[in-house]
Design goal:
The chain is an all-beta fold. The protein contains no helices and eleven strands. The protein has strands spanning 8-10, 29-33, 39-40, 55-59, 63-72, 85-91, 97-102, 115-125, 131-139, 141-142, 148-149.
């Protein structure tokens, strides 16, 4: 019997860009209304602010700040990821707020206002053993020299 090759698959297509060269990192794909300037993530076809259908694809920056969060201690049904985990919202300089999982250490160490950056990480494995990948945010920690580390 030949074992099927495992793949890394996104939790949902079209949520982030794939790097096209070295040094490039993935970014969340949003939409911006050309009529009123409102930005939406995930991207959509109609502006819920002004009802315009004139939207364009835009990329969000990779860094934002935690606007709110909570730590989940009990596994919800259908969720295959690790527990406990932190979930919440990241506010981007572009003015959009994105719901996300947090990664990169103790979920109880997160604070509102903390600077975070986007990463793509394994969420879980599907029934075929493929790695299901998701965007998440991890804290950007201050170094001992006063700068930020990634």
């Amino acid at each position: 019997m030949v074992e099927k090759e495992k793949k890394a698959i996104p939790v949902r297509e079209g949520l982030w860009s794939l790097p096209s060269g070295p040094g490039e990192k993935p970014q969340l794909i949003a939409s911006r209304c050309r009529s009123c300037g409102e930005i939406f993530f995930p991207s959509q076809q109609i502006c819920t602010h002004c009802q315009s259908q004139d939207l364009e694809e835009t990329r969000l920056g990779r860094k934002g700040r935690i606007s709110s969060h909570t730590v989940v201690m009990q596994r919800p049904s259908m969720y295959k990821g690790p527990v406990p985990y932190a979930i919440g919202y990241v506010e981007f300089p572009e003015g959009v707020r994105v719901e996300t999982l947090f990664t990169g250490g103790d979920p109880n160490g997160l604070e509102s206002g903390m600077e975070v950056e986007m990463v793509i990480e394994k969420l879980c494995e599907d029934d075929e053993g493929n790695e299901v990948m998701a965007y998440m945010f991890r804290p950007i920690r201050a170094s001992s020299e006063g700068g930020l580390t990634e």
